[in-house]
Amino acid sequence: MAAQAPAADGGQKQPITPRSARGVRTRNALIAAAREVFERDGYLDARITDISKAAHVASGSFYTYFNSKEEIFQALVEQVQEEMLHPHLRERTGITDPRELIDASNREYLRAYKKNARLMALFEQVAQVDEQFMALRIERGNAFARRNAKLIRTLQENGQADTSLDPLITAHALSVMVSRMAYMVFVLGQRIPYERLVTTLNTIWENGLQLRDPAPEA
């Protein structure tokens, strides 16, 4: 089980990341249980006692790993964010063609969004009433944009995309388009066939960048 460091100001203790396998399992079980309770009861009505019960741990054990409901919700946000960022896509897939890369990236994001749709809806709601989670939501969007801006900049340098575009602003615009369409389809229930959704988003990406094949070598 993880120890807790005493707070320097005499306030809440700072939970320490568990080092033992048992501690890791317990913390992960609490996060999984929190997801179940938050999705079932909503953020405001979720209770720590219900999270502990769903994780099959004593209520007191919760505070070994988290100080509050807000803190475990943040841990859940970070876990889902890591999944949805699908890092190192090129390294994992070996894809180098930009059109194929855009397609693979959009597909991974949409699949992850669909899988986490109930939680994504909850994130949206909590971000409107909690400044801390609004900041997390903004940073998640910034992380997507920074990654996509890197791709756009590379395409511009290779003569494959419109060089008049600001890479970061363009990345924000395209990322927001994909995320809001995902919200509209998977949370609000707009009926758009998955394949049509993907191909349409891919086409808008390509047209927006004025994507073209690299110039042939002399």
Automatic annotation (TrEMBL):
Pfam families in the cross-refs: TetR_N
DNA-binding annotation, residue ranges on this chain: 47-66
UniProt-listed InterPro entries: Homeodomain-like_sf (IPR009057), HTH-type_Tx_Regulator (IPR050624), HTH_TetR (IPR001647), Tet_transcr_reg_TetR-rel_C_sf (IPR036271)
Keyword DNA-binding among UniProt keywords: yes
SUPFAM superfamilies linked: Homeodomain-like, Tetracyclin repressor-like, C-terminal domain
Sequence segments annotated as region (Disordered): 1-22
Keyword NADP: no
PROSITE patterns assigned to the protein according to its UniProt record, in alphabetical order: HTH_TETR_2
Domain HTH tetR-type: 24-84
Coiled-coil regions listed: none
Alphabetic keyword roster: DNA-binding
Name of this protein: TetR/AcrR family transcriptional regulator
Record organism: Streptomyces atriruber
